[in-house]
Amino acid sequence: MENGYAYVSNGFPDEESGTAPLLRLRRSASNTTSQIAIIGSNPCPIESLDYEIIENDVFKQDWRSRSKFQIFQFLCSKWILCFVIGIVVSLIGFFNNLAIENIAGEKFVITSNMMLANRYLTAFLIFAAANLGLTLFACLITTLIAPEAAGSGIPEVKAYLNGVDAPAIFSFRTLLVKIVGSIAAVSSSLNVGKAGPMVHTGACIAALTCQGGLKKYGLTWRWLRFFNNDRERRDLVTCGSAAGIAAAFRAPVGGVLFAFEEMASWWRSALLWRAFFTTATVAILLRGLTDTCLSGKCGLFGTGGLIMFDVTSVDITYHLEDVPPVLLLGVIGGIAGSLYNFLLGKVLRFYNLINEKGTAYKILLACTVSILTSCLLFGLPWFASCRPCPADTSEPCPTIGRSGNYKKFQCQPGHYNDLASLFFNTNDDAIKNLFSKDTDTEFDRTSVLIFFITCFFLSIVSYGIVAPVGLFIPVIVTGASYGRLVGLLIGSTSNLNHGLFAVLGAASLLGASMRMTVSLCVILLELTNNLLLLPLVMLVLLVSKTVADAFNHNIYDLIMTLKGLPYLETHAEPYMRQLTVSDAVSGPLHVFNGIELVGNIVHALRKTGHNGFPVIDEPPILYGLILRSHLISLLKKKAFHRTPTLTDVNVIKQFSSSDFAKQGFGNAEKIEDIGLTEEEMEMYVDLHPFTNASPYTVVETMSLAKALTLFRGIGLRHLLVVPKTSGRLPVVGILTRHDFMPEHILGLHPMLAGSKWKRLRFRFSLWDRFFS
Amino acid sequence: MENGYAYVSNGFPDEESGTAPLLRLRRSASNTTSQIAIIGSNPCPIESLDYEIIENDVFKQDWRSRSKFQIFQFLCSKWILCFVIGIVVSLIGFFNNLAIENIAGEKFVITSNMMLANRYLTAFLIFAAANLGLTLFACLITTLIAPEAAGSGIPEVKAYLNGVDAPAIFSFRTLLVKIVGSIAAVSSSLNVGKAGPMVHTGACIAALTCQGGLKKYGLTWRWLRFFNNDRERRDLVTCGSAAGIAAAFRAPVGGVLFAFEEMASWWRSALLWRAFFTTATVAILLRGLTDTCLSGKCGLFGTGGLIMFDVTSVDITYHLEDVPPVLLLGVIGGIAGSLYNFLLGKVLRFYNLINEKGTAYKILLACTVSILTSCLLFGLPWFASCRPCPADTSEPCPTIGRSGNYKKFQCQPGHYNDLASLFFNTNDDAIKNLFSKDTDTEFDRTSVLIFFITCFFLSIVSYGIVAPVGLFIPVIVTGASYGRLVGLLIGSTSNLNHGLFAVLGAASLLGASMRMTVSLCVILLELTNNLLLLPLVMLVLLVSKTVADAFNHNIYDLIMTLKGLPYLETHAEPYMRQLTVSDAVSGPLHVFNGIELVGNIVHALRKTGHNGFPVIDEPPILYGLILRSHLISLLKKKAFHRTPTLTDVNVIKQFSSSDFAKQGFGNAEKIEDIGLTEEEMEMYVDLHPFTNASPYTVVETMSLAKALTLFRGIGLRHLLVVPKTSGRLPVVGILTRHDFMPEHILGLHPMLAGSKWKRLRFRFSLWDRFFS
């Protein structure tokens, strides 16, 4: 454990204790509710999600009363919601690109015109001021309105799909800030991406849609009540994140695969189909919208914006002798990618210390990064020598205006500045330039090297600012320049053209940083629109991921750890086979009787932060598990008895399942909000009809690894542990998400940390010594 | 229930009771082992697979004793096995295509030469005789050597991955017959495919590889012992089936997606990566092998064989007005596809009656189909009129030799027979002709209509013969002709060329018959090598699948039902929420004591066919569950005591986990093989160290739907049901796969069959009346 911090489970183990050891959080002994710090925001409590089918009398009655029409309506509305999500996401994606291309384009046009008039200082000042203003705007709205919108959002959505409900990540506020902030941040020439924010936007839209709109303004539909549970929401959020990638890269199949490979923790074929339907809607609508722009009605949008690199429409041929350089590119890319992750982690940790100090510090940091970026982007091209325009090029040289391979910058007519063609452009255009074919002589080795190094470090220092910024595009542009560099160094010994090397370089860095395989492969193919690349891209991805896996985790896992999101892996750590579940449960247990005194319930709810309580009947047998939220709803309804009696069946009929349905995100009621008289506190309440009578249980001698399989496989929030022998209390404890966290287990059993059961991972002492 | 047959669970419920109600099987009251009829083979018992982590003392001890080196070795060998599978599958795939192209090619060359010499009758006789001979050979080796190799094999592999171990489907014998038989069957011009058999071949190779080769000949490696469990085998078989599709269609990404979407019942991201590695190996090696053939060293193989249709390297443009015809194509394709499934089901049922009668009938059926096919293929082109060769074609017309768009057949020089260009060709070449661009005037409407109808019915009557034949290619060729027909009928009102319509037609029929989405989409894109098609292909697939889903199930589910393979769906039927698990368990329970008399065990094993027995300790508490196979291993070891005593720890050390490891496929030992003396029968054996002490349990009041989530989610073979109240036997019953089968449940509770809880599916009375 770092910094001497160890998980101490005080009292009843609870899922809310999934705390972030790195952030040194306050914990009080009387409350197990823990806090996480969303980077750049105030600490908030996190909740777990429950994908278990809760079987109590009220829900059962509701299910039985559903008519065939209602079931049909439910099935239809699933598809309608997916369709709506697809349409909204594609509209936002289109609008996003339109805005970025026009804002950034206008900025470059003005600056270029100044430079044509030889007013270089004015050009720089305008450039830097525009960038600073945009960055400041993005940072301000994020800090003041929705701190949850900071960063790419992919780690939060991934954690949500794993069962961790970070607060307010799917609020309308967050959505708005995410969209506007992302446009401003990307337009400000920061080395940040828009793909990650698009994924979060898609997920947000899905979550808001299934909630039936804005609850605050009463805009909800009654027929959406069937979606008031975590399972349905999870499914829609998965579809939404697939739609996000589809809109960002115009890659519908890649979007589905991304959602499956990287985002989703649970998945089934039926969901694949729905996600595919959503991304198909996005792809078709986006194509239609882009077509309407072909006539030039969209300002500077042109045909681009939505990246679609036509790397090579000619046939690509490659042979066995091209494999060794590609392998080498993969290996070095793998090392570079893991180094990237490592450095990014360190920088984020450092930034976190700054951002914690207050709003002013956050803004100062963002401004510093923006000014640094402006200086580098405007300054570095001056070091590159002007190159004469090639005679046989198909496009005008130098390119006056915004896009194109040849930027004039400070050069005399008939010459171009190759470094400015990369730096003085949007990232999308820089990638297009790097991916373009038949341009092997266009760039100088030194220029590409400078560009690569600058991008590598700029993207690392840019990600941590408090604004909605992504990682995908910066990694692609860095990787593409790396690939070009390899191509230039290998020279004519290879048959492959340098545009192809750039694609492979992008693949290697993406693979090494994000550790996806199939989805990245498909996204790259859909981007470059050339299937003949497939075997080489596959090879590079496999090699770079394998190499990088030997060093550290993927970038999103790293950020999740930093944010303290308790992500539950599918795979059990080897030492979990050595422990039984009773080794992991700890603390005294709080149970209720089947018919319980109201005062006892209120006391327990106030005193503890637990979300589930076992219900015991006489003679000691386990009746079931009751959730905190259901107890609170029950207390609100005040169906109390003066004597300990069972509730009448007719009384149950007064309750509808919607009383117990999960409220929207972050709207859970609190025990403190319920006022009860002294008299009511002395009354009894029958918990039976509201108790989940068939919770999943495991025997105390089961290994933790096996229990994890169940917990993770079904998506549980609480797992009851029952005793092996008879004559004891019929429940030994409750396992929650936090009990399966390696930090918790290694905290309880420190001797395991150094044992042979730790995960196999290479540790190079030199690497550790220099960089740790 | 059909035919008055109802599932009667006699005694203990057991997973081996997953019988096929349609095949009217014999069941004796004393034995619950059931039989399934692999179509065209002798009935064999089926087994379930167990993906649960079995935790008994012996396995635990083995796990603890593993060194870090052994864990590393295990991890490495996983990847090495995937690599080996990839290489072997690609070699077989290449060899397969080489053989088919050469055999079929030679046949067509000889026949064509005869026809050039105007010896039409001889040509027909040679053609028919060659076809008959090849069909006969395929049918004979299948019937006599490996009846399990009949059909495509995809349903069996899919069932295996769901946890159903049909006997001998992964034997070396089956593999050989599958490869050789598939070559013969496809070469014989039957309207059958080679993709399905390739999937089975891939799965077979994976299963044999992880078994460490041929057990019979002692070719096993000790370090493969870690793969001796169902989980590891399942993972490798999944990778193998992905490799199969990758080799059949040169579609590595499509292969992975196919394995995920259609085949696998359990899946996780790590497996995705391994499957991707396997298919990448296949793709790269296959490309290398095909390149070596470019110089013409492979006989008639040429560049083709492995289908790679270059439908359009030109830009495809389409607009909003092209959507309605495409939608129409999707809807009609959906109806045609569901009709296809329906008819195929009927024909298979009918063929089953014939095939059951004996080997002679099987062969007779195959020969009839072959002769019918030969007559149609040779006869129908005579009805087409000869068309003059187009002036502006790039290839020679008429094509003399094997491949090409213009077949001379009976026409005079300078003319070609368009129907012969489709019929008198391998299926691969017919598809290539249909998919080719700029050939809108090449085919006559009537010709394409005749071809479509013939293919539709020929593929239905061909699939049921006892030979290794697949469905993929016939559906593609039928769909492609359907698409061409739509293109011809719509004519010039659409911007789309007819080759494109053919691709969309193939997509619609595939989607409607196999009901896959993402994987089919990617396979088609990888086949046609054109990503611009993507939105249209997605649209067609979505529409046709939706339409077809309203009528019936996908083709593989249909075949699995016919074969009586108890496939467990993820999705619980609505009525399962109305039933508790105690409604599904039935019959008296057979339990053992912790220390049990040998005679009792032998008696129970002989008397019942059960595969799992609860072990009870005094005072009545549930100790765990012991498997039949472990009991048999234990009896073989004869670690008995004269008095009821606990086994010493040192005695346990004499047992190694390999004694209890699952033997290879179909090599399980039987209780009858173990000889025990009268004296030994009177001795005691301590079951504790060999009992799985932490089986998964559910409480008897849990709904069946919720229990299914657990059973299916974890991949269990046995699920123990424990009582809600105390003072009873600590186990109420055992749920196995068969208890979750709708046939079983509806048999126990017939009133549910007509209730509103039945699955929502349109029922058109006309459809039922005419076709049922």
- Any guess at the CATH architecture of the domain at 323-562 in chain A? Orthogonal Bundle
Enumerate the spans of chain A where pLDDT stays under 50 for 5 or more consecutive residues.
1-44, 756-772
- Give the rounded overall mean pLDDT of chain A: 81
Kindly report the greatest chain-chain contact and the residue count on each side.
Answer: A-B, 79 and 79 residues
Distance between the termini of chain A: 15 Å
How much of the sequence of chain A is in beta strands? 5-15%
Main beta-sheet annotation of chain A: 3 strands, mixed
CATH class annotation of the domain at 323-562 in chain A: Mainly Alpha
Structural class of chain A: mainly alpha
Q: Name the CATH superfamily classification of the domain at 323-562 in chain A.
A: Clc chloride channel
Spatial strand sequence of the major β-sheet of chain A: 7-9-10
Proportion in helices of chain A? 40-55%
Top keywords for this entry?
mainly alpha, 28 helices, 52% helix, elongated, disordered N terminus, 6% strand, 14 strands, homodimer, Clc chloride channel, 772 residues, CBS-domain
Give a brief outline of the structure.
In chain A, 52% of the residues lie in helices and 6% in strands.
